[in-house]
Amino acid sequence: MSKAYGGLIEKYRAFLPVGPKTPVVTLLEGNTPLIPAPRLAAMIGPGMDLWLKYEGLNPTGSFKDRGMTMAISKAAEEGAKVVMCASTGNTSASAAAYAARAGMRCVVLLPKGAIALGKLSQALMHGARVVAVEGNFDDALGLVKQITASYPITLVNSINPYRIEGQKTAAFEIVEQLGGKAPDFHAIPVGNAGNITAYWKGYQEAKAHGMSSSLPVMLGFQAAGSAPIVKGHPIAHPKTLATAIKIGNPASWEQAEAARDQSKGRIDSVTDRQIIEAYRLLARLEGVFCEPASAASVAGALALGRAGYFDRQSRRLGRRRLSLACVLTGHGIKDPDRAVAESPKPEVVKPTLSAITKLLKL
């Protein structure tokens, strides 16, 4: 009988900064599926093999759990009693859950009125002390930095290097799932930019350690109203319905640009309209329900496909088929209000067979 899965730290221990005395705090995160998406692939372009790395199937419903198992485990090793983060939602849910698992207190600063209810409910249920700041995410993160620098509280945002270490394991998984190679292209939403940084680090390490025979071209996508990297300057008042990437001054800005440049990739922006189109298509064509920000990766891939980008890359490489992995960072249940707002209302009928058959035109 094979050994049971014990979480990503246990699986990738040799590639992570943990030792025999590190108390591993895990909810059995990682090990998420890489789902083929042939119908969406056909919309991106002929000869495209599209894969969806569905991170919404992590324990708290987002990719944040990969980094949080590392951050909280290392905090526990260092004797921390309290952890703190700023969040647009997913980080708060993950930090609260893993802190609870470790027996720590968790404090969360959120931008007032800018968090999806599904995420807020998680942080509250896990017992976090949740404080709404009258400002945006960048204001909240600035306060967290000041507080954790002055008090015995551990910061667990993605500027904590252990977060990046945990998140890089998703690249290891993709390489394994594709049989020992990276996809030709890797598309990902960009908010605070820690995730694109982590994936590129993971792909590089996978190749260096002989796990992968190749490296991907990294394609990052910001929301048009919250696209500081694309525009080349911080956005004081970022705007987008994709709240998870509503960040005007990414903490990992330089690292994201390095991932883009070193992979010969690009970081572009997509509109809210394009994000919602991809959000609907994922659910209705492929049966995969993600939160709106997650769909930015697919929205960007669709836009590049329509602009002929992949056709040009195919000719450049002299290959008829290309592979693309799109990361879906969070589950759709994270933002139920948006799902309801973008869907038709349930139809109401009398409780009779004739009423139902008439409605369905049977």
What does this structure look like?
This protein has 2 domains: 8-62 and 163-341, Rossmann fold (3-Layer(aba) Sandwich); 64-160, 3-Layer(aba) Sandwich (Rossmann fold), CATH 3.40.50.1100. The chain has 16 helices and 10 strands. The chain has helices at residues 8-11, 38-44, 64-77, 90-102, 117-125, 137-150, 161-167, 169-177, 194-208, 228-231, 253-262, 272-286, 296-306, 309-317, 336-341, 353-359, and strands at 34-36, 48-54, 82-86, 105-111, 129-133, 154-155, 185-189, 217-223, 266-270, 322-328. Strands 1-2-10-7-8-9 form a 6-stranded mixed beta sheet, with helices on both faces. A 4-stranded parallel beta sheet has the order 5-4-3-6, sandwiched between helices. Strand 7, helix 9 (194-208) and strand 8 (217-223) form a beta-alpha-beta unit. The longest helix is centred in the middle third of the chain and has 15 residues, at 194-208. The protein is globular, with a radius of gyration of 21 Å. The model has no long low-confidence stretch (mean pLDDT 95).
Task: Give a quick rundown of the structure.
This protein has helices at residues 8-11, 38-44, 64-77, 90-102, 117-125, 137-150, 161-167, 169-177, 194-208, 228-231, 253-262, 272-286, 296-306, 309-317, 336-341, 353-359; strands at residues 34-36, 48-54, 82-86, 105-111, 129-133, 154-155, 185-189, 217-223, 266-270, 322-328.
